[in-house]
Design a protein that fits this description.
It is a single chain. The chain contains eleven helices and 18 strands. Helix 2 crosses helix 7.
């Protein structure tokens, strides 16, 4: 795509200007950050900090994209896609976005509700009968557990809010989950369909009863299977038809087309002495996949709605801008304004979750009190992140979208998520 670059020789700040809300109707046009209320000079602080993370061996590289008022005010690639080859990171490089997949799947569920094909209050068992009779592992207080019938059926809304009690296999009944080889969030190596996997999950004891606790786990993978059943389409085809094609998210995939493999950023891991290249393909360590994964060379069978997608900063920013625009991007409406409103409000009441002042909606964490969290942002902001150390947030009050992609797992002794937030907000001048 055509880029208008303004380069500061000291900091190599690169500013790309285009109007996201009219991307389909008119060509890209040059803007300055000042035209949307951000300071070019102050944004140099962000560029300097990102470059320092690379020179200090904290990060291999990444891409940061800041949209304000529907326009690109800051778009910067830094460091390396492949550090060993000294291959520079490019703005259109592709990243494993892991749990950032969840927001897209959550939108998919809301699309089906808007089509009249389901209600989020429906029991999951209406669409996947194996979930009509789930069980829970309750601790017996002596280091073991008892398996009891769940107090009620799991609903689609429970899955959207991570209150279904479905973990990653590390709860009280871990021994049973281990025997079935369903542990952690990584599915790309599996040679069975997502429906087959989640039907096996239904037979395992859950961590808690539905609606009682926030349990982060395989809830959204189950939602992906629900989408397949209700839409009568494979999950990748449904997302392509309903979200990716309308939004022209041309580089978002579960498994990478071979023609794009050279754009996939390498995964690195933090060590005491810097960063090192993660193994290929790698292996599960605890709940996480430490390695490059099976996104190019693998079975290409399991469409993980919880953590499976690959994307670019620009593709994901378009998706988020659609959410900020209350369900519409350009002339394409993906959701109604009321569905977006429902997704970005608190659904978990007083169930303990994260920081004080932060709650959870349908696929997004939401901010209700700034002082509780204690970092810069706004009430009404919604966000999430991914296991490979990517993150994003949408700030409706400031009309702002931020996408920050890098590939680092585990990510140790690094403060980049909070620091880029501080450096972005300090650049606001009106």
């Amino acid at each position: 795509m055509k880029q208008i670059k303004i380069i500061n020789p000291k900091s190599w700040v690169v500013i790309l200007g285009f109007t996201l809300s009219s991307i389909f109707a008119q060509p890209f046009r040059d803007i300055r950050p000042e035209s949307v209320g951000l300071s070019s000079k102050r944004l140099e602080r962000l560029t300097h900090q990102l470059d320092n993370y690379v020179s200090d061996e904290k990060l291999p590289g990444g891409v940061a994209l800041v949209l304000r008022k529907g326009k690109s005010a800051y778009f910067y690639s830094f460091g390396y896609r492949d550090k060993e080859l000294m291959d520079p990171m490019e703005k259109d490089d592709i990243f494993r976005i892991a749990s950032q997949t969840k927001a897209i799947i959550s939108v998919g569920i809301m699309i089906l509700q808007e089509k009249g094909l389901l209600l989020i209050q429906d029991p999951v068992g209406k669409y996947i009968p194996e979930y009509n009779n789930t069980t829970v592992a309750e601790s017996d207080g002596n280091g073991s557990y008892n398996v009891v019938k769940a107090k009620r059926k799991i609903t689609i809304r429970d899955l959207l809010t991570h209150t279904a009690g479905v973990g990653w296999g590390f709860g009280p009944a871990q021994d049973r989950w281990e025997k079935t080889e369903i542990m952690g969030w990584y599915f790309a190596h599996r040679d069975e369909s997502i429906q087959a996997t989640v039907k096996r999950v239904a037979k395992l004891p859950m961590d808690t009863h539905p609606g009682e606790k926030f349990v982060y786990g395989l809830s959204v993978d189950i939602l992906g299977a629900v989408i397949e059943v209700v839409s009568d389409q494979p999950l990748d085809q449904f997302l392509q038809q309903e979200i990716f094609e309308p939004l022209q998210m041309k580089d978002t995939h579960f498994f990478l087309p071979l023609a794009k493999k050279n754009r996939l950023a390498k995964v690195y891991s933090s060590t005491k002495t810097g960063i090192k290249l993660a193994p290929d393909p790698g292996k599960r360590v605890g709940a996480s996949m430490i390695g490059q994964g099976h996104y190019v060379n693998g079975p290409r069978m399991s469409f993980s709605g919880g953590a499976g997608l690959l994307s670019t900063a620009e593709d994901y920013a378009i998706f988020l801008q659609m959410m900020l625009n209350e369900g519409q991007f350009g002339k394409k409406r993906i959701l109604s304004r009321k569905s977006v409103e429902l997704m970005t409000t608190n659904h978990i009441a007083d169930i303990p979750f994260g920081s004080d002042g932060v709650r959870f909606g349908l696929g997004f964490a939401t901010v209700e009190q700034l002082g509780g969290r204690g970092i810069l942002g706004s009430i009404g902001e919604f966000s999430w992140g991914g296991a490979y150390h990517s993150t994003y947030w949408v700030d409706p009050n400031e009309d702002m979208v931020v996408v920050y992609f890098t590939q680092l797992i585990p990510a140790l002794n690094i403060d980049d998520h909070d620091k880029i937030r501080a450096l972005i907000y300090q650049s606001i001048i009106n």
